[in-house]
Amino acid sequence: IWTVDDSENLSTSYSHISQAAKLLTENEVVAFPTETVYGLGANAYSDEAVQKIFAAKGRPADNPLIVHIASKKSLDDIVTNIPDYVYKLIDEFWPGPLTFILPKKGERLSKLVTAGLNTVGVRMPDHQLALALIKEANVPIAAPSANRSGKPSPTLASHVYHDLNGKIGGIVDGGPTGVGVESTVLDCTTNIPAILRPGGITKEQLEKIVGEVSVDKALVEEGHAPKSPGMKYTHYSPNAPVIIANGNYSFIQKLVNEYKEAGKSVGVLTTSEGIPYLQADKVIACGSRDDLRTVATELYDTLRTFDETDIDIIISESFPKSGVGEAIMNRLLKAAGNRVVEE
Ligand code: TXA
Ligand code: MG
């Protein structure tokens, strides 16, 4: 087992690509950076390799994986019946944080990748190290986020190390990922594409290119089974319970005080704007409300930082559900098990 640990920096990473690629071709699993979060990669053609992803993460076998490719033309090796609108979206957003769900082609992909479904998710990540690794391995790479199942996704190599050290072949350290939330998962098996998981590419961005885009009912109201199997699991949970406070800073502070009076040690997830107004045992600014992209970038690291403290509860401010706010609130609500307190 080799690991590119924190003491080694980005400039050493390229020399590790060939080692990492060799491990992939030997059906080992390797973590690598993408523009969204770190992925845990394996040869998508090999049952033996893909099985190791599920084992390392403790991931339920009914949750399919996204296949990562390094060139647009590799799409034809993996999927079929590609609608015209997919090509328009590829031209605009690939490489990038957009995953297409399409009918799978042939029998070559490991059935473990698709969890027995006849569709498969495919994306081309926008990260030089990821693209170099996939090219050198010369096979499509199945990769979920490189965290233990249920934990926040990793946006730093150290997050991967914390969760998976000793369980995987190695980590390619590319420093912090940029987008911070995972790719948008788009069902493209229908005439109108449907968002199954909000992510780095927003509904507004998609609609500009292809017109109408729908959203899986399970994301909008309760009582529907999500079409993306992964969306039904608890996720992104720090050790302490999370509560979302939907109100102004004085409302959030009032809530903090109530928990303090009940003898709890309280953490607050806010933004740079909230810092002057909030006092608690641990207050962390996660980006700026002025630019929700910065909140997305820092969200998972912020959630993980609370795990390094001994707080009993995390109270988070709420974010507008537009643009990338859609993905932020989707992840925060999961982290909170849907506990929201309204002003
Ligand atoms: O940004 C990302 O997408 C990251 C990086 C590493 O690429 N990957 C990622 O993978 O988030 P993962 O496994 O954590 O999430 C994949 C999501 C899950 O919700 C899964 O259920 C869904 O995609 N998915 C995969 N294949 C599917 C399919 N055939 N039909 C419906 N949903 C699918
Ligand atoms: Mg994940």
UniProtKB/TrEMBL annotation:
- Gene3D superfamilies xref list: DHBP synthase, Threonylcarbamoyl-AMP synthase, C-terminal domain
Predominant subcellular localization, coarse grouping: cytoplasm
UniProt keywords (A-Z) are: ATP-binding, Cytoplasm, Nucleotide-binding, Nucleotidyltransferase, Transferase, tRNA processing
Keyword Acetylation carried by entry: no
Q: Which reaction does it catalyse?
A: L-threonine + hydrogencarbonate + ATP = L-threonylcarbamoyladenylate + diphosphate + H2O
Q: SUPFAM superfamilies from the xrefs? A: YrdC/RibB
A single GO molecular function term of this UniProt record: L-threonylcarbamoyladenylate synthase
Q: Which InterPro entries match?
A: DHBP_synth_RibB-like_a/b_dom, Sua5-like_dom, Sua5/YwlC_C, Sua5_C, T(6)A37_SUA5, TC-AMP_synthase_SUA5
What is the E.C. number? 2.7.7.87
Q: Where in the cell is it found?
A: Cytoplasm
Q: What does this protein do?
A: Required for the formation of a threonylcarbamoyl group on adenosine at position 37 (t(6)A37) in tRNAs that read codons beginning with adenine.
UniProt-recorded name of the protein: Threonylcarbamoyl-AMP synthase
Q: Which organism is it from?
A: Metabacillus niabensis
